[in-house]
Queue: 4 jobs
Job 1
Amino acid sequence: MSEGERLVVGAVLATAAVAACGSGGAPAMDKVFETEHFIYYRQAGAPAPCPSLGDWLERYYRAFEGFLGVSRPTLNKVSYHLYSDANASLAACSGAGRNCYLPSSETIVSLEPLKPHEIVHVFERLIGTPAPAPAMFSEGIATMLGGSVGPPREDGRLDTSLDIENLLGSKAFYARTDDVGPAITYSAAAGFMRFLLDRYGKDAFLSMYGGLDNVSESAEVERQFEATVGEALRDVIAAWQTAVAPPYDEVVLNTPLCDQLRALAPDGSTVLDPGCAFDAARFDVPISGRLDVLLHRIPGQAAESLAFAHVYRCEGGVPLDAGIFVRGELHLALDVAPGTYMLSIDGAQVSAVNAAQPVTLDLDAACTTGRIAAAIGGPDSGSLLVVRRWVAPETGLALDLDIGSAGQLGLGGVSTELAMPYDVYACPQACVADPDQQCGHDSLPGVQTMGEPRDVFGMRVAAGDRLHLETGPRIKPAWQYSLQLSVDLTTP
């Protein structure tokens, strides 16, 4: 949120917060570092920012400046104030929240070392004129570009039921936010902004947004919107509410940041060094939707430093929803919608290589010739992570595993939030006519609760074995799951 939009709503809170700070006024802030566009300050007790934080501030600065097509009119640097005291940050934001942007002093106030949402506010205020847009629009665009949404509906989709037609005025929007929380109102606002962006295209969307400058009353918001786009705002809201809601994680648009990242090397490896924050690179998934990336934790690092990987679709969506630890070598087999994606690593250094050939993933357990198996186990403790994200679920999946070391077949990284395969069969070869009779069989829900039988996961395997796996239908129709397969050297 930004200064001047919630001063009345937060007046009582601000008074209490200032009182809690004592009579000394605002707390002392120590200057930590300076970049091309930022001066970073820290209150005593706040986490010490790491050196790479400045690079990410500048990436987000360029990302939002470029996407929104605006430039700041002054040469002043943005002050970023990292607070440790929640009451002090609340007072600095005049009681409007604990994170905010103050345009009069070009200052970001935050309890978080990096708050992209507030960096968006630096630039969205400049679309059209520097006057503020209606709160639902300004908080919606800041969340769409620099935030996160949630909670989702039970089916994993965005909840579009909020009566945003009654929240067009800024006071009404913030009053409802105080009642139900920003997770509800900001998420709905972001979803509607994404709907408008997709409906009209970026140029028309930004023109409409600029036309709402200094408009805060509901009736004037409706009048100005219709004058700009030629449609009644309430009719457009109704169209959004009656359309099929998107997966909730597809509301956030990652394209501006993706455009600032280097691409994974087409040949050879790319080192991702998170330092004390995180590192990221982009890559393109072809029209087939199949791409494999080999991740390898670089040896020689402290044993306690764990590498953690996420995958984001730049146009929206998080195929690897819970993230995954990279221990040794991880073969990431993506079966996802084509487009540009972002691989993010935090913790330890990792090398990433585009696999020359993806492993064979037979949808609907079809049998094909020239199958390419995935190697698991071996000296690098390799594992395979299959990540699938398509709106239309398949009935089953088939793949082959080449075992590199003796142990037990391990299972991990299963996404249970949406839908996973119900059954897994381990067969001696492909194209078994009746896997229920001829193959080992586990029910994944049974495995997850350590129920019996466990004929697949935990089975003994030896170096040189080739194992054929097939999955049964999904537990429920949804669009995504992940499944990690490894050789476990320990006894369960």
Job 2
Amino acid sequence: MHAVTFNYCHISFNTVWTKNENRDLGNLLRNANEYQLPRVKIEVTRRMPIYTLLDEWNRLGDARFHRNRETFEITVKNILMGSNPSSLHTLSVMD
């Protein structure tokens, strides 16, 4: 934020972060010298890999309870290749 405050950053960042004192709120604020960060929509976080990884893990069902990596990989490959059609609808990695 030092680069934004002292105008070291690129000019395109001038409108991304604004101070609370520059917003038209109509009230005096204790944190007028602090920056207002833009809010992120929940749809953006749902596309992040960490969110989709956990979502796909929960969709694996009983396949996620294997004790070693080798049997887990075999099971996931079988699901993706279609040898276990009943589990195919629960795994949507190909979306």
Job 3
Amino acid sequence: MPGPADLPLLLTDSDASTSLTGQDLPSHAARRPQARRLAGPIRAHEHRGDSAESPQLRIVPDSAESPAALPPVTDPESVPVDRSAVRAIQERLSRKISREGRGSAPSGDAELDAIRGEIHDAVLDHNNTLATAGEPLLSPEAQHALRIAVYNEMFSLGPLTPLLDQPGLTDLEIRGGGKIWCLFNDGRITTHPPLFDSDAELIEFITQLAAMGPTPRPFDRTHPNVDFTLTDGSRASAQAWYTPYPMLTIRKHTLTDVDAEDLVRRGAWSPSIAAFLTACMRAGKSILFSGVAHSGKTTGARAVLNTLPPTTALATIETEDELGLWRLQHRHGRVWSGQELVGGGEVVNGRIAGQITVNDMIPQALRANTQVIVVGEVRGREAITMLQAMQSGFCSVSTIHAHNGRDTIERLVTCVTQLGDYSTTWAYRQAASLIDVVVHLSYIDERHLGGREHYFVDEIVLPRLSGDSPSGFSVPQLYRPGPDGRAIPDMALEPSWMPDLIRHGFDRDFLTPTRGGWPEPMTTIVPTTREALT
């Protein structure tokens, strides 16, 4: 999806300044919920002027021969942009659009061309104001940077856009108005100059972001925590008032369009594991992915779901849209996607008016003729929704934080019993009878040693009811950790539903030592086996 940085430049006859062209700007702006920011003015603030700590953009000089071939503006370390000017222009354009009664988001090429022209003219007006006041004029590069910043303020993520566009960025952490950390997939952690003049300004920015998504979320003293999804699918989480300063954390999903073959190539799954999980999914087995943070649970869930035929009717039920399967129309043409609504206003029969919870969505998803019901991450009350989904649909897929296969069931039972209405015995029995497969994921991070991250499956267990266990369940390992920690099959165990897998193309030989191993060794700086250390 193109962004403002990808847009070609256009020279004006009068001052050779640069501008946004009409063809590339509008096509995705009309689809972005954040474009609603155009509909109304945003409260003005007192801001610093231009400073060395202003957000930065790298501007490429104009090219009269091939402007469309210019590389994107993603390096936030060059031409400074005056944030007060950005806000002033954005607010002025918003008020103008509101006065004229235009819609909250541009529709059609004509309106988008008009907005592009208005941004261009507003920057020229700003430069004229500087000239009248006897202040230095903006260079053509600075004018172009200002136009991009105004565009980002209206249609994208404001000052965060150039930071989020950095290649390899995985996480962005903002800790108060003056602290910004950028985390990259190669292990680098860098800081960036402040983008907000105060904690109050950061709170207002978070409030606007949370309110402008597809499922608006409040952020105020009565709602001091907010989790929401940005338009590119990134996950955002913010907290304030009970913390020393407001905090915003954004996680970018780097692997969204991924399948089993991709994870085999990346060394995260063995061919045996890929074949087994693909057959499980197609045979209607419910799978729970577990692991610690950053171990690849959501990626694993996407990959196994992407093994289904495109005509399979899927429902995704999440507190926030994280899986994003509805965006992958080439893989999933029939997706019913639901996210929670906070609601607001009066309380009716003990519930907030307009509130929709994950549990409310199960009946609606079933009425939508869905076959596979996916409940995203299980952190607490979602546990009951997951169990209901496994009871109701053809099969289900979910994720949960846990340290191993057995701990996965213990963690799930804890989530259920904390709700207060369910006994431990009932929770164990439901988990053992409804979950067919638990896939536990692990990773080794040697980036600090000059190495890389290694993601892999280390265990696959098959929960089942067992009278021999005090808890009434057992978790036999179909795949157990091998010498290097990666999962290899245990030939002594075979699921009772093996015929179902064979009907969907699974070959029993994948559970033998010959075909059950990993094609390549896992090369680590520190050996992964105890024998190698001695």
Job 4
Amino acid sequence: MAKNTQSQIDKVTELKDQASAKFDKAVTASEKKIFDEAVTLISELEKTTDGKIKPSVANLKRLAQIRTKLAKVANNKDYLQAVKELAGEFDRIYQAQAQYFASLTREMHHESKYATMKQLAVENTVGGLAGAGLQSNVTDKLNDMLLRAVTSGAKYADLVEEMRTYLRGDGEHPGALTRYASTYTVTALGQYAGQNNKLLTDDLGCEWFEYTGSEIETTREFCEHLCKKRWIHKSEIPEILKGHIEGHNCKIYAKTKLPYGLIEGTNAENFQVNVGGWNCRHQLVPVAKEMVPQEIRAKFEKPQQQPQNEPSEGWKRVMREYGTQIEELKAWTRNGFTEVETAIFEDRTQEYEPLRDAYYRAYSQMVKLKEPLWTAQTKLTRLGNKAAKEGRQDLADKATATIDANKVTAPASRADLQRRISALETAIQEIKAALNATPKAAPKAADGTAMQTKEITMATLRIHKLMPKAEIFEKRAKYLQRTLKVQKEDAEHYVEAIESYTGNYYDSMRAVQMGDIKDRDLMRSAEHLEEFIRKSPKWGGGTTYRGIYRWEQSDVAQFTTAQATRMPIQMYGCSSWSTSKEEAKDFAMKDGEYHILFICKGGQPRGTSIAGFSRYPQEQEILCSKDGKWMIDKIYQPDPTDDTYYEIEVTPC
């Protein structure tokens, strides 16, 4: 069995190597075509009697023609056919991996994830090898070389030789297309296999891996030592990424603080995908623990504990406090630990099944108890933001202080949770009353007249202030029924979904869409929201912004990797964007160590404006579908001295 399983792992490596070798042959032939055509084209440039290229207007005009022709030659018929055939290799790799995965589990968990991963990998590879990637990494540099030669009056013979070295190589180093395409292909195939391995690892909770793959002349020090080690326990990965492998210390690149060759931002979470870096031919394959030699496993196995038939004192306390007649587990906890969680961790190692089932029931009860706390925190946060925008910083500070004072950061009893909820609700009522008691004058322009905002926002504000809630709902539903040509019941569902999403259920609805929690009512509401977006006119009114807070440096690194590999990003659930950069940036700066502002120029083909329906019309909100995808074009820090704030320019795809 182990021998057969190993052959299945080796089959994946073999398929990857065969696919890249076959594509390399097509690339070499294409390089020759590009070089021959380039030499023919530049022979038409005007030259002086001593063989130098004239820095003339006529030559500059010819360069524009040459640039267009070179782009066509680079994407010649044979090369594009090779790219198409390479795309087909992803399916062969998946089929080989599926055979191996079947040896570990009887069913493929979340099979749709694998299909989506394959589709994205193929799209990115084709785009990188036959689209903008080829242009920016090969033909653009060739065009720069020609422009420099013309403007400087270089010798024609020197230009031909420089082009030959660049496009065909010098015997020791390969040509530009081979260098780029080979690295891109090997990395794309390797990362695709790694992504599938990661999905399986997450589904099955695998703890053991085999580091395997083909060795080449340029195999890195890091990979050489990991191949010798071969078997890796998941707990070893953080130390491995520091370069510590079985007593050997790999050289570390100062910039990335990782062993030489590894992709910047590689960490324990994405190591299975990135493995040894660009052009790496290895895999970190999840394996059954039975494949690992016993003497290696023994170092990581803990002594078996005898089942305990009696609950601990902590668990007895939980049983008395919360009871056992409660619903099934709904979601994981947030904001620290409660008394219930403490008891669960205390008894976690026990094998006694009735107790283990009781843990989950108590967890559900704990989540149910904390839900009003989360709702109150969300309400007070939004109210504090509103107060700040209206110039009532004292009320905004009061909201922040109340939230901070009532976060659950230590074990808490039922009575303590209720006390915190009451404190939050009291603050909500007091701040609401203070805001309503403050007369709000319209902002004045320089000439003393009232400033006008967008008509739809003003109309919405008037509705919020002057009309009863039921009348607002009815008016909005009728508007959607008329404009979207839908049934009255559907229109009402859409309005309810928008109010829920822009109100107290923003986090919950996104969590449902991501599969983190299961709730029938929230699921229906999320489906209505998606249906509303599909049927509504799409946003084409200009640049939109999305502020994100509570990011970590590793997240920024992953965005950098996504940009480099041309991998689209998603927002995981419906996402709110704004036409106001100030609003989005204010939101991004709310909390956390790192702050990100996404900037999407143009339109949002999977988004629609809800400024007339949102509970916060001043946000000028554009709501995008959970299926929205964006390609990262640029990542930068507007202020070089501030390494906590990033702006990321994206294009919808």
